[in-house]
Specification:
Elements lengths: L6 E2 L2 E2 L2 H7 L5 E5 L4 E5 L8 E5 L2 E5 L2 H6 L3 E5 L5 E4 L4
Length: 89
């Protein structure tokens, strides 16, 4: 709901501003027509992994999921980190 609102308290709502308001444990992946976005909670309670498959980056909730699709494990998303994958990398 927060991402769908153009403004919160009169301030333009951005992805980072929305995540600053969230509390609790989460990792999430958002896919748009041009980007793949991954975010992990600031405490790192929920895992989120970055991998590569056939030259493309992939995100998964756990590294074991990358094994299942035979993707190369790159690294874990750091606690509080937001990664944006697009045509530039």
């Amino acid at each position: 709901m927060m991402l769908a609102q153009p403004s919160i308290g009169g301030v333009e709502n951005t992805l980072m501003q929305t995540f600053r308001h969230l509390e609790g444990a989460y990792s999430l992946i958002i896919m748009t027509e041009k980007e793949l976005i991954g975010a992990r909670d600031p405490f790192g309670f929920r895992p989120l992994s970055i991998g590569r498959l056939n030259g493309a980056y992939v995100l998964a909730s756990e590294s074991v999921a990358l094994d299942q699709i035979q993707a190369e494990f790159i690294r874990e998303v750091e606690p509080g980190e937001i990664v944006i994958i697009n045509e530039k990398g």
